[in-house]
Each structure stands twice: as C-alpha cells, then as structure tokens.
Design a protein that fits this description.
Chloramphenicol Acetyltransferase; about 500 residues; globular; 15 helices; alpha+beta
Length: about 500
Amino acid sequence: MMGLQSRVTTIHKWIPPITQALGTIPSARSMSSRDTKWLWEAGDDIKEYHKANMCGTRIGSFLATINSSKPLKEEDVLKTLKPLMKKIPNLRTCLQTRDDNLWFCQPPNLKPNFKMLKMDTEPRDALLSAIENMLEIPGTVQWSFRIYPHSEDVECLNPVVKKSHPHQYGLVFTGHHGIMDGIGASFIMKIFIDILSDVLEGNTVDDDEYAPFCEEREIPALIRQIKEKLAEDSTLVEAVQSNIPSPSSTPLFFQAFPRPQVKEVTTRCVSGMIEPRVFDKLLSKSKEEGVTLNSAFLSAINVAVMELVRERGVLMENYEIASVVTTTLRRYKQPSSTFFFGPCTGHMSYMSTVDDSVKSRFWKYCKTVDTELHTRFQKGVPLQEKALQSMLDSSQEPHDYITRIKPPLHDYTINNMGDLSRFVSEDEKVVKITSLSSHNMIHNTFHTTFHEILSVKGRNYYTLSYGTNYVSEDTAKLFLDRIFSVLREVIQLP
C-alpha cells in the first residue's frame, strides 16, 4: 500500500490564475431589461462575495469523477440542465447592478453555462474553463458545469462500479458564492446526477421546484440586533475583538515560514486521501473521547504547526496559534425555518495555546478545544464577528477589494464539510459519483491556507489550498505531510 506521506505529494493539483481586469464586470453585468424580475437588494456580505468573485477569488468548486452505464452526450447534459434550472431557483438567479446597487434578479431566457471538453482534459484546465468569464457575460447564469470524457485506461477509485458503469467522465461545478454555499451546491450536484440518470434512461423528468430561493431575513436581523448592542456596549466590542489576533501581530506560521515573493498571485492546492483505517480509528477515538471530528482535525493541525515552527528554530514556552473556523449560520435559524439554497456561511476566529508536550496529551487538549469551540458557537460568536466586521469595513466600492486586503492575521482556515454520502446517487442510478473533492480560490483573501475535509462513501479527502503569495508549494506539501503524520501518531498507528 502506498504510504500516507507519498499519497500527499503525488496527488498535487495546480489551480491556474484568474486574470480579469477590475472594474470591467459590474458594467457588463448591468441590466435594464423590462423583462428582468428584480428580487431584492443584496446585503453587505453578498456584496463582499461579489467583489471577491469579480477579482477571481472566494470561488468554490466541486471536482468529481462520474461513471455511467451509458455514453454521455452533450445534448444529454443540456436536456438535464433545463429541468434542473426549473427545480432550483438559485440557478435562475443572478447578481446584477441596478441604479448603482447590487440586486438579486431573474433575467429572462437565461442560458446555461456548460461545455463538453476534450478527452482527458487536465482538471486545472477544466476548472479554469468553468471559472473564467462566469460573471461577465450578460444573459447567462452565474454558475457553470464542465464535463470531459476519460480514456479507458484512466484509473477509477471504485473498480467495481467501473465494471458496470464503464464510461468515465470528469466533472466541474462552480458557482457564484452569493447564490449558493457548499451545502446548497452539494444538493444541486445530487439533483443534477439524478436528473441526468433519468434523461439517459428516457424517463420523464418533472420540473417541480425543489426548494425556494428567498431573501434571507433571519440572519441579517440577528446581525442588526448585535450591531445595535455593539454600538452601545464598548465592553462587548472589546470581548469580540479579544478573540481576533491583533492587526500588528504576525501569525506563528509566518514567523517560521516567511511569505514568498511571487510575480503572479493565484491559488494552488495539495491534496490527499486519508486511508480508511486512519480515518475510521480517528472517528472512533473522537467518539470515545466525546469530541467532534472537526475538533480532532483542528487539534492535529495545531500540533503540526507547533512542530514545524519549532523545527525552523522558533522556540517558545507556549505557542499561540490562530485559526479561522468555518461554519454554517443555519445553526442560528429557527428549527422551523424552510431549507433554502442560498448562502449561509460564517467564520469564527479561534486562538489556542499549545506547548511542545501537547502531542503526548493530545486527547486532553482536544477536549479543551472541543469545549471552547462549542461554547463559542453557543454564544453566537460567528454572528458577533460578522456584525463587528461589517461595522469596521463599510466600503462598498467593488474596485477596491484587492487594495483593501490586509496582512494575514491567522495561521490557517479549517472547513470540515463532513460526510457528503447522502448527496451521492443510489446504486441503481445510471450515473454515479465515484470521487468528489472541493476546491476554493482563496488568494487575496483573509484565508492563508484553507484546509477542507470531506468524506464520500468511505473515501476521505483532504485538500489544502493556499495563496501563492502566502505559502510556497514545498511548504504546503510539508504542512500536509506533517498533519497526516500527526493524525497517525495520535491514534497510535504504525
């Protein structure tokens, strides 16, 4: 069996740069058609996503391998996208300017953004094709699908499935982060595969709307309430700010690994699959210790950071490591709330202190991390930080997104998407997803390295994305290798 560390360095993907000129997209996306259905004005967080997306960053994508029992033609996908757009209102929705403000709207006669690429297209090229021009073509959607056939000799991670479903394809799905988040995109992927299977079988496909895309009011209302409290209570402001590293500080990781000087700033990533026995033992041990898997991963990353900086000569009695923990703000909605496909993503700053003995008492440390994270989530810290950030950064100019980028404050970001097996089609389907990973453009953002973990049918994917102006390729590989090594050690596998 291939060793765990060699898995990391051999499964290396390069995400190319997106080089769209700032300021060109807003005017191109302006609409004055009388037939356009204007929905509601975008909130501040959506405007931030839009500015970033226009600069080619903060764009999330799913990369998948699909296997089919029947050959797949371009017209099959186009027949699939038509009912998919009717079932998912997000896919009929765009962000466009109206009277100098950004609005959600539904233009008439939207065309899907889909291309069938040549055989064995490189994933990086398929990703670039999916992202480029996604926002600047009037009259088209702000999401895209790319599919390309694989030759027969391309390996399938599930050989059993390939025997019954021999036609193998690469698939990329990406979309504007202002109209969908990871959970919504996962649902859309599943529905797409289900409809595609029905199309290939010649079955009738209904176009009943699956779930609404409506103006999110609960979370903005909560944030407004918090902003009012912050405006009146300086003590609360100080409490929220105390969770965030000082703007004058340098993250521990960058004290040991100075930022590289590069001509071209983009996002790249290294990725690997966590061996099933490692993942299963980690999951079992986490349950036994009463902690979440996310806390176990975060704790392991912190141990890896501490070890790497010590080896680079940064010697301290205690090491303070600052991370960003992503979460869904759906956790703060009322239980009776209707599911919707819109974005509902939040972030929380988390600072933890470790010393050089932390690995020997890993699970005790992990319990501390788990308790602290749980308490902060319960207190609504992600909402508090979002409210404070919106008060401190009120700029609404799209062209100044890059110029407003501040030096990094955190060592890394972690995003555990969990088990996405429920989004994978059942065994009887004509088309099946046989591998799935998530990739994020993060350069020129507050994310320095972005650690994303997801599982699908017993396969556990770990992707470390990084801005090339923050981390070199060799450092990223070293980082991921060390994380995998720590995971093996804390569950005591040889």
